[in-house]
Each structure stands twice: as C-alpha cells, then as structure tokens.
Design a protein that fits this description.
The protein is mainly beta. It has 2 helices and 11 strands.
C-alpha cells in the first residue's frame, strides 16, 4: 500500500509511525485509548446541554489545510471507503490573522443509506484561549458539495476547559482545493 503526502509517495511504516505518534502526542491519546470509528455519534445542529452560559468564541474564523498525509485516493484525498488521512491546518481569526492550528484524522468508514460517504473525524484545535477536541461522523460527500457539517466539541484547556458544544464547519468554495478555507462556527456551553 502506498501513502501520498501532497503528491509525494512515502513508505507506509514511516507514515503510520509518524502519524500515530503525532496524533497521540497532540491529543494526549494512545492507541489503547482508541474507540471504534462507528462509536462516534453525529452531532445535533444545536447542543442542548442545559449547563450554564453559552458562548460563540470562533464566529467568522476559518481553517485551511497546510499539509496532509493520506492513503487511497490522493487528490482530493479520502474520497473512497477505506481511505484515511491526517492533516495539519492553520486557524485564522475574523481579521485573517493566523492564530492557531488544528491536527486531525479522517477515516472514510462506509456509505450512508443515500450512497454518500460516511467519515469519522477527530481534530484537536490549539487556539489562543485554550484547546478544543472535535469528534464525529459526517457525510463527507455533502461536505465536499459545500453543505455544513457539525462536530461535537469539548474544551480541554484554558478558557474552554470543561465546556461542550458543537462546531459547524463549511467549505467556503466548491470544488475544494488545498487553498480552500472552511468556516468555523463554534457554540460552547458550560
């Protein structure tokens, strides 16, 4: 099996070692902590956590992929069942200043009843006020068509610690390229 890194072929053992170590180190997880992909629920459009004040800290922010490593279909990546990728993205605030980054993992795990691709995501956002972990299954076909997708999010450090909610993530233009940004709109409660 070959892995593609933005067009460069790499040996699978090296990519798996680096990817596993990078994702585990950045999220504080180990392979033993991993849960089956199908276990992640789909996020509701608006959380109803009933716990304290809610805020929307990322309104008008965007995310852009800077580097990725993938298995399967190279460009655009992760477009077939069985494909996977890890990515490193920059986060920009509403004034277009690069203020953070995200590291994430995507796995195309099957097809939905309508034939669209079902994908599992897990990302850690390193932001100026703290870190967020986003997780969930989404319709990857709908995402590439420009429809918004929703992830569960949990604050892990700083101002976000202990808060829960959602991130709505949407491509700014279709078809997507490496320079395409996505909008990030988060709602956190707690």
């Amino acid at each position: 099996m070959k892995f593609t890194a933005g067009g460069t072929v790499l040996r699978s053992a090296l990519v798996l070692t680096v990817a596993g170590g990078l994702c585990g180190t950045l999220t504080g997880a180990t392979f033993a902590d991993a849960a089956p992909h199908a276990a992640a629920p789909r996020a509701a459009a608006t959380p109803d956590h009933g716990q304290g004040r809610c805020e929307q800290p990322l309104q008008g922010w965007t995310e852009q992929t800077m580097q990725y490593f993938s298995t399967g279909t190279p460009v655009p990546p992760a477009r077939e069942v069985g494909d996977a990728l890890i990515y490193n993205d920059y986060i920009f605030d509403a004034s277009n200043n690069q203020v953070g980054h995200a590291v994430g993992y995507v796995s195309v795990i099957g097809t939905l009843a309508n034939g669209d691709l079902d994908s599992y995501y897990h990302a850690t956002y390193d932001l100026p006020d703290g870190d967020l972990n986003a997780v969930g299954n989404i319709d990857r076909t709908a995402m590439f068509a420009g429809k918004p997708v929703v992830f569960h999010v949990t604050g892990t450090t700083g101002a976000y610690a202990g808060k829960h909610g959602t991130i709505v993530w949407q491509l700014q233009s279709v078809p997507a390229t490496l320079s395409t940004r996505v909008t990030l709109d988060a709602k956190l409660c707690g």
